[in-house]
Automatic annotation (TrEMBL):
InterPro entries: KH_dom-like_a/b (IPR015946), OsmC/Ohr_fam (IPR003718), OsmC/Ohrsf (IPR036102)
Name of the molecule in the record: Osmotically inducible protein OsmC
PANTHER family: PROTEIN YHFA (PTHR34352:SF1)
Pfam families: OsmC
Entry's transmembrane regions: none
């Protein structure tokens, strides 16, 4: 049988929802005050960007460990362009990987990103179906 994910999302009233996760944790989703919400939850479209960065980040972190690479710090910035017309969706997404350290192996770190982007990250593959992706890596040597 195919692997499935099942998430339940419950209306909390007004514009707020609570969504569970197979991890057992919950998150709150809410619209901003400009859209009738209280601004007390995460926005759905932005959550997609967190999912994208998180998915790729897990791949890269796993590969850093496997390749025994020295990285002091690492973060991912996702900058997405929304279409003007409804339904608004991301048509261009820029993903920037930032690495910090005194002994960064740029070649192997780039290989880790490439493996995530091209082979392992399922969320990246989903985004590829509807958006143009731009990937950049920035190394900060200490």
């Amino acid at each position: 049988m195919a692997t499935t994910n099942h998430v339940s999302t419950k209306w909390l009233g007004q514009m707020a929802f609570e969504s569970n996760n197979p991890s057992g944790l919950h998150l709150k989703i809410d619209a901003g005050t400009e859209d009738g919400g209280q601004g007390e939850g995460l926005r759905p479209k932005a959550l997609m960007l967190s999912a994208l960065a998180g998915c790729s980040g897990l791949d890269v972190a796993s590969l850093i460990k496997k390749m025994k690479l020295e990285v002091d710090d690492f973060h991912i910035e996702t900058i997405a362009n929304l279409t003007d017309e409804h339904p608004k969706y991301y048509n261009k997404v820029r993903i920037e990987y930032y690495f910090y350290g005194s002994n960064l192996n740029e070649g192997k770190l780039q290989r880790a990103i490439d493996l995530s982007v091209e082979k392992y990250c399922g969320v990246m593959e989903m985004f590829r179906q509807f958006a143009e992706l731009e990937i950049e890596t920035i190394f900060h040597h200490k």
